[in-house]
Amino acid sequence: MIEKKLARLLEWKEIAPEVRHFVFEVDGVDKFEFTPGQFVSLTDNVNDKPIKRAYSIASPPFGNNRFELCLNLVHEGAFTPHLFSLEPGAEITLQGPLGLFTQPVPHRETLLVATGTGVAPYRSILKAFLKPGGPQYTLLFGARYDNLLLYREQFEEMTRQHPNFRFMPTLTRPSEGWTGLQGRVQQHVPLALGGGRDIDVMLCGAREMVESTRDMLKALGFDRKQIRHEKYW
């Protein structure tokens, strides 16, 4: 039986249209320990019914009892409208950390492929593990519009600070001034791989992206042990 705890909302910030970054603290513990890439399960009563949903942790372990989430509002959803109605001080039931969407150890060159809020666990991974002299990381991140490239400024700052990090955003509906990659992330996977095969690949986001990219990688000769995935919708 997984232990249940209470998580208290400390603050939230809108980081894109209908996308919020939430900061929680876990009640009654000094440290909330987890492995970057894991998720938490949140439960609360909505219209007198208990609703449970899983969300990837978007922050590295801080060494304290805090964690962060990145959520988009699903208007017809059973739970996110409730979460978006919460104000600081509200409490919600927490289970976790959970999940195996984590990097193999020892870490080596890794391609991170994401759409939408599927970038959340990669923010956790990069903030925890991207180090000078460490393995190469490439983040291939797809969105419709440039204002939906979540945490864009943070990832761009990482490219300036770390020669071993590449940020490759791509848009399916770019504005006239966009000079970066265009189209779905799948079509840019070969470019991101650069011909390499001794690379771990992590896929997170839309089901269609995850499944088609996984099939592509297998066709390229990648072993299933090199590919980890998490489907969001």
Q: How many separate structural domains?
A: 2
What share of the residues lie within helices?
A: 10-25%
Strand content: 35-45%
Terminal CA distance reads 27 Å
What is the CATH fold-level name of the largest domain? Answer: Rossmann fold
Global geometry: globular
Helix/strand-derived category reads alpha/beta
Q: Any idea what the CATH architecture of the largest domain is?
A: 3-Layer(aba) Sandwich
Q: Flag low-confidence runs.
A: none
Order of helices and strands: EEEEEHEEHEHEEHEHE
Strand arrangement, major sheet: 4-3-6-1-2-5
Please describe the biggest sheet, giving its number of strands, its sense, and whether it closes into a barrel.
6 strands, antiparallel
Mean pLDDT: 94
What is the name of the CATH superfamily of the largest domain?
Nucleotide-binding domain of ferredoxin-NADP reductase (FNR) module
CATH class of the largest domain: Alpha Beta
| Radius of gyration of CA atoms, rounded to a whole number | 18 Å
